Amino acid sequence: MSSDLNPRPINGCIKFGNLNNYTPAQFMGSAADEAENAHSNGCAGLAPSGGDTIEGAFLTDGWSDNVRVFFPSDPDNPHDTMLELTGTIGLTNVGEGNYESFFKYRAARYKDRPDGQPGDVTVTPVFPYDREKFFSAYYNTNKEAARLGSDGNITFKVDALSAIWRPVPAYYEFRDRQNRVLGAIPMPLLGTAGAN
User: Whose CA is closest to 120, among 152, 98, 150?
Assistant: First the structure.
């Protein structure tokens, strides 16, 4: 809320990703915002040096985030089969530059929905980059696609190949018995810089 009744486009910066990267962007602001940003150096100096990589030791204390997502166990009857999944995704440092990716969850019927069946849902990893490496790491620990169930824990270890890391897009898909995608959540994952 502002006493300035004439908002205008103001040049600013948006922080994105988990490495404190910034990109120029506009927002609707007041005269005070415009005056304050006129004296700034834009996004210069905000972005860390080194681009989108992490060098050396990382994840000393690990990293985690909470997730909550809703999807039906049967998309032909979404109202009555709606499920609620809550959990934690994260990375744990397991030493020598290696890390473990984890996904701990609880799944249950959404309130007053009589027919949702967590056991009808499969959790499938998706690795758009470095597919061979990550599928190998995943299936070394997880011998098959996981049935969702009411609670669970999916983990897999990634071995260090380099001291320079970058975030890698990946996610878990939830699929029904006919292999239809019901929903997805991001999977925290780091790969070696320069890999494809």
Answer: 150
Q: Are residues 21 and 116 in the same domain?
A: no
Render the burial of 107-133: b for 16+ CB within 10 Å, e for the rest.
bebbeebeebbbebbbbbbebeebeeb
Per-residue pLDDT reduced to its tens digit, 96-143: 778 899 999 999 999 999 999 999 999 999 998 888 889 999 999 888
Contact status, residue 154 vs residue 123, Cβ threshold 8 Å = yes
The domain that holds 121 is classified in CATH as 2.60.40
Q: What is the pTM of this model?
A: 0.67
Q: Which domain holds residue 16?
A: 8-52
Give the span between the Cα atoms of 181 and 163, in whole angstroms: 36
Q: How far is 105 from 118, CA to CA, in rounded Å?
A: 12
In a domain, 2, yes or no: no
Q: Which residues contact 39 (CB under 8 A, 6 or more apart)?
A: none
* Cα distance between residue 119 and residue 18, in whole Å: 33
